[in-house]
C-alpha cells in the first residue's frame, strides 16, 4: 500500500508539470484557442494516464472500477454498492432487505401460479467477484456469509436455481474463462453453462419441456475491452478474449423481435443476442424446441443467454424486471397467457433491483 501511495504522489507531481504543455499541444492541433482555464484539463490525457497508473493497481475511477490481479477488473461501489455489500455480507444493514426481497418473491410466485402459470423460477447468476475471487485485491475479500446467502435462504429451491456453487466449481475445472476479464458479465461459455444447468433442472421438473441442446467452445476470438475498461477510458487499449459457442443440433434459427405494444418488427432474421429492454419485447423463434410461451424478466446477464433461450422456446416476452409492478405483470399475464415465467438476475442486485419485488407486493 505504501508503494502505491508513493507512486500515486509521484505521478500527481509529474502530471501537474506536464499537463499545461500537453493541453497546449492538443488545443493547437485541434485549432482551438489556447486559454489559461483549459491548461489543466484532464480529458485529453485520461486514457494515457489511466493506462499508466492501472499498471500499479491504481484505478483512476475507483468508484466504478477496481483493479485486481493479472489484468482483472471488477465493478466498483458506484453500482449497487457491489464492494461494500460483498465485504460486509450478512452483517450489513441490507440483511433484512435481502430477506424481505426473497420472501416477497415467494409471494409473487404464489400469486402467479394461482393465475395458471405452470412455474415461476429465478435463475441467480453469480457476480464475477464470487467466481474469480483469487484475482481480487487482498482488501476486497468477500464475507463468509453474503447477502446472496441470506436471499437464497429465504426462498424455496423451487423458486430459485442458485448458480453460484455450480459456476464456481466449473470455473475450477475449465481451462477457459467463464467471465470476461475486462467486463462485468459472464461470457458465452459461462452463460451457456449456467443456462444448461438451469434448463436441465427445469426440464426435469416439467416433462413437457424438451431440452436436448448441447454446447461446446469451438473457437475463441480477441475482442475490444468490455464495460469496465471503458469506464477506465481504456476501451481502445485493452483487449479481451471471447469464446465462440457451438450449440448442437446445428440449425438456422430466425428469432423475430417484435415490440409487444406497437407490434413493430425490430428484427426478422438471425438469432443475435438481445439487449436490455425497458418495454416488453416479444421474440418469436422459427424452429424452437418447445412450442411454449415464456415471460422472461431479466437484466443484462440475459444478453448472452438470449440466443439459447430462443432455441428452447417459441415465444419469449422479455423485459427488465425493474419496470414490472404487480399491475403491469398481471396485465402481461392476462394478455400473453404464458406457460412459464423465468427471472434472470445477478447476485449483486439482490438488495437493489431485486428489492423492487419487496416494494411492490401483490395485494
UniProtKB/TrEMBL annotation:
This is Acetyltransferase AlgX (SGNH hydrolase-like protein). Keywords: Alginate biosynthesis, Hydrolase, Periplasm, Signal, Transferase. One of its GO terms (cellular component) is periplasmic space. Residues 65-243 form the AlgX/AlgJ SGNH hydrolase-like domain. Pathway: Glycan biosynthesis; alginate biosynthesis. GO terms for biological process: alginic acid biosynthetic process. Its main location: periplasm. The keyword Signal applies. InterPro entries: ALGX/ALGJ_SGNH-like. GO terms for molecular function: hydrolase activity; transferase activity. It is found in: Periplasm. Pfam families: ALGX (PF16822).
Amino acid at each position: 500500500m505504501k508503494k502505491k501511495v508513493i507512486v500515486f504522489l509521484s505521478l500527481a507531481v509529474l502530471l501537474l508539470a506536464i499537463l499545461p504543455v500537453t493541453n497546449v499541444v492538443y488545443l493547437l492541433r485541434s485549432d482551438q484557442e489556447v486559454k489559461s482555464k483549459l491548461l489543466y484539463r484532464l480529458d485529453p490525457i485520461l486514457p494515457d494516464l489511466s493506462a499508466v497508473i492501472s499498471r500499479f493497481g491504481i484505478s483512476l475511477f475507483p468508484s466504478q472500477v477496481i483493479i485486481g490481479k493479472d489484468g482483472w477488473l471488477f465493478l466498483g461501489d458506484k453500482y449497487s454498492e457491489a464492494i461494500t455489500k460483498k465485504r460486509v455480507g450478512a452483517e450489513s444493514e441490507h440483511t433484512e432487505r435481502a430477506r424481505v426481497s426473497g420472501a416477497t418473491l415467494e409471494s409473487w410466485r404464489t400469486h402467479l401460479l394461482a393465475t395458471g402459470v405452470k412455474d415461476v423460477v429465478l435463475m441467480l447468476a453469480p457476480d464475477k467477484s464470487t467466481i474469480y475471487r483469487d484475482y481480487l485485491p487482498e482488501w476486497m475479500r468477500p464475507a463468509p456469509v453474503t447477502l446472496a446467502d441470506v436471499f437464497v435462504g429465504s426462498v424455496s429451491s423451487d423458486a430459485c436455481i442458485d448458480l453460484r456453487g455450480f459456476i464456481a466449481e466449473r470455473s475450477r475445472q475449465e481451462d477457459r474463462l467463464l467471465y470476461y476479464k475486462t467486463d462485468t458479465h459472464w461470457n458465452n461459455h459461462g452463460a451457456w453453462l449456467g443456462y444448461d444447468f438451469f434448463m436441465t433442472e427445469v426440464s426435469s421438473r416439467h416433462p413437457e419441456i424438451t431440452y436436448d441442446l448441447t454446447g461446446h467452445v469451438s473457437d475463441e476470438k480477441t475482442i475490444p475491452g468490455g464495460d469496465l475498461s471503458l469506464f477506465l477510458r481504456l476501451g481502445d487499449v485493452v483487449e479481451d478474449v471471447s469464446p465462440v459457442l457451438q450449440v448442437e443440433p446445428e440449425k438456422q434459427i430466425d428469432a423475430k423481435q417484435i415490440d409487444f405494444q406497437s407490434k413493430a418488427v425490430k428484427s426478422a432474421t438471425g438469432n443475435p443476442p438481445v439487449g436490455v429492454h425497458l418495454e416488453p419485447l416479444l421474440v418469436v423463434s422459427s424452429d424452437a424446441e418447445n412450442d411454449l410461451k415464456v415471460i422472461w424478466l431479466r437484466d443484462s446477464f440475459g444478453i448472452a443467454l438470449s440466443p439459447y433461450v430462443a432455441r428452447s422456446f417459441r415465444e419469449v416476452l422479455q423485459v427488465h424486471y425493474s419496470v414490472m409492478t404487480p399491475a403491469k405483470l398481471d396485465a402481461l399475464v392476462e394478455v400473453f397467457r404464458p406457460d412459464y415465467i423465468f427471472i434472470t438476475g445477478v447476485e449483486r442486485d439482490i438488495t437493489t433491483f431485486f428489492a423492487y419485488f419487496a416494494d411492490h407486493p401483490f395485494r
